[in-house]
């Protein structure tokens, strides 16, 4: 009975690192989702990712503040998410921002 419970919990909690938007694949997913855009052209782009292993360990800093500092962006013109998942064993969420320096 415990084994059934563990498999049920695993099946219900896979892909926990995803922000919850966009389609999810049972085996693999790789989606890019537009979150914000001003319509202006961006001259710079920066990316940062957060990763999850087995839904037990999560690490990374994908904050817009960190991306702006690392890429030299002063004014943000667009924000996108890229979410990847493989069997719930590994998941990542990357924040991609475009802007002007």
TrEMBL record:
<dbReference type="InterPro" id="IPR025113">
    <property type="entry name" value="TRL-like"/>
</dbReference>
<feature type="signal peptide">
    <location>
        <begin position="1"/>
        <end position="17"/>
    </location>
</feature>
<keyword id="KW-0732">Signal</keyword>
<protein>
    <submittedName>
        <fullName>TRL-like family protein</fullName>
    </submittedName>
</protein>
<dbReference type="Pfam" id="PF13146">
    <property type="entry name" value="TRL"/>
</dbReference>
